[in-house]
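Example 3.2
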Amino acid sequence: MTPSTTVHSPLRLYGRSGELAILETLLERLAQGDGGALVLSGPPGLGRSALLEQAAAAHRARCGGPVLHATAAPAEQRLPRSGLHALLCSAPAPLALPADRVLRTGLSRDGLLALLREAGAERPVLVCVDDAHAWDPESRAALGFAARRLGAGARVAVLIAAIDETAFAGLPALRLGPLDDEAAAALLERLTGRVTDLDPVVRGELLREAAGNPRMLAGLVGRLTADQLAGRAVLPFPLPGGEAVLDAHAAALDGLPQDTRTLLLLAAAAQEHEPEGAGADAGLLLRAGNRAALPSALLDRALFGPTGIPGVLERTGSRVHFSHPLLRRAVLRHAPPAHRRAAHELLATLLGGTGAPPLPALVQRACAAAAPDALLAAALERAAAAAGPRGERSAALTRAATLSCEGPLRAARFAAAADQARLAGDTGRARALLARVDTVRPHPSVTGAGPWTYDPPVMLPVSAADRTDSEPLGIPGPVPVGGPLPADALVPYVRGMLALHDGPVADARETLLAAAFPLAAHHPRLAVDALLAAAGAAWAAGDAVAYLDALHRLTGPATDRSVSRYASGVCALLGGHIAEGQALLRRCLDDIGRTEDPEALLRTGVSALVLGDIEAACRAGARALAAVRTSGPQVLLPHALEQLAYAELRAGRHARARAHALEGLHAARRTGQSNASTHLHAVLALTASVEGPAEACAAHADAALAGAGPHGLVQAATLATWAVARADLAAGRAGEAATRLAPLVSTGPRHAHFAIRMLVLPCFVEAAVLGGYAQEWAVELEAALDEFALWTACTTDPHAPAQLARCQALLAPPQEAAARYEEALAHHDRAGGDFERARTQLLYGQWLRRRRRTREARGPLRDALVVFEGCSARAWADRASGELRAAGESVDAPEAPGCRPLSGLTPQQQRIARCVAEGATNREVALRLSLSPRTVDHHLRNVFAALGVRSRTELARLMGR
């Protein structure tokens, strides 16, 4: 297919590749002499006209054939045959029948069909009819009659664009849907090309408002200034520019009976108190329809029938949805204000029965309000303070804000609504609500040059140990405050939390620290949350000093006891007071069975991980996940899944870790938390470094590193680099693994995260020794081993003693190594963890084979292979089976692609041939297989002779590498 025959346009159509491919097939058949027809249906603004224009341009470019292209004029809908007249007038050359005669005398039933066939006798003809639903009935009937009879040999194709395809039953139809998120974002980037710094909040609000409608998106962008698009000027509310699209949606419903339009108004109004996308309750609509005296047959068909109202209203179980979200907004916009308020009042009456939750009825009354109402706003705020879904509470507070007269109260309620939206996992809505806060002035207690700097009072910590230069934040006891939290106290907190989810974590930390002190005077619990979040930001950034600084501010006597124990314990432990810190953190583990608070359980999980109690970390993570799934908030779901996956990874349960990490990745994307996505990619890279394939490990590691750099996520970057190095180790590329890990264990700028460095050290020692750097890096390896020994003496991590003995075996002289390996295996027996034990057995067997103790080597190598195969560690299993074959034992394994030419080689020659085909030098092969370079050269000459090749390039080509 050449560019001249492809459906294309100078103005690219975004998200329509499938539709363009279908049009291309139709035009290709037309060029070959076969006709056909296709109906493009969908609501206004989705690109029906643009697709017709593209098809017409492509047909002219392909064969220069004529195009009859007409667009319906709604004003002529009642004029008989006006549509046919417009179509015939668009012909580039005179037809056999003059167009004016059609208006006067009409056409026979097959008159249009005959005209089109005659026009296509010389060259293929394309007929394009836009907005055919607005044609007069006679013209629609004639067009449908002709289109159904165009087939092989007709040399005429008909493309019909209409809101729905019911008038053209029997014809192939393609219904257009809204653009997906990726396509809509690409279109927005094209539309805002003049703005180089499109504000993320504005971007999210435009995409949300357009709901995947390209014409709507273009209209919205066209009405905003460059300053508004860049976030330098306040956005108008509601956003202008979509009126034409909404009016077109409403106009498409004007032909429906009055009772049907009333039901649609009730269905649109009934979704105002529901979460976005939840639809309306069919039972409520039935009661409302009966109260409004709508016909029972209509209610039964629309609410409980299999088809609802075709093209408009659909039923899913007990819920009723509009076929497109813009239809609902169009119905509400088009309805007379008195009718709309009456619908909301009716629904409020039905929802306000005895024992019913107050929030739905209050939201409906708010929708019916014609002016600000302080009493109703206060009632909405009180209802939002009760337990319930965070999204509903955010919607209620938003309604309360719009009904508020006073500026500060209005701003405070918008800020509270933004926080509830954040907790619901709707970060886009949270940012949009923050943008509606009128003016946020610094709190009177805030001092200093910057808007959020402060001078915290001095208070004594719980422990007398001096652990950081900063002083704890003085958080007073609960202060009874009437009304919502002031916006100037809450907005910085919400902004900081949003930055922690999706932004540079260093910025988030500073914002949250600054927000904590103004919050303390109004809401001590939120002040504690701000400091905990600041500590979390410092942890993600790998900044131990900043982490301790934030935690030290939480050790005041008024802080919650469990939070104070956690903060004091971590400060003590990282400050060198090991016994004190461990005692405090062990007391934190008691909360696993005492609380259902997901945040407390997540802190308990961190305590367990810091202590090295992996089983307790898994239990805390599982309970935190259950608590989030039961009662929310949804914003914590990715974090609960991430922490559980990491704990399971540490416990050696790689399949479970992968499953939870994948679920967490989907949740993070759904809730707009890019930083959580980055961390979960790193966890998935670690699982793939065990299970494979190597391509998955590399892809997840690349994604993690790409996200970690801009946002300063040192923890994620460390995990991703460790994962790639571990995959290198599995594949026998020890030298590459050592090169990757060396900066992490050093004290330079690329050092590992302070809480992960000790976990990386055993891999570094193994990679350095197997990679041939034992003598060159002897000082560094000895220092690393001493440091790891000190850590092992302090931690309760069950795998640490075995890993220490394994590292000592790798660095020990030959007469001591075997005893060290046996010691490591004994520790593994006590600690559990099959994968780590198998790694030790692999190294032990490799060491025995290198000492020509092949009979002894087979036992540990065989055991390692069984474990690796059992946990789907493919690359590790390949390495173990290779060592086992080299030890003289036959191993049955599936034949890998490209290995058939090696069937005549010995196991050792096969291993050397594979390494050379991957590009390894003789020295690298020798290091990888524990051979001398001279032995590798000898075997390689025999490989070349046996396979009949003369170079490494020919060998790689033969093996398909």
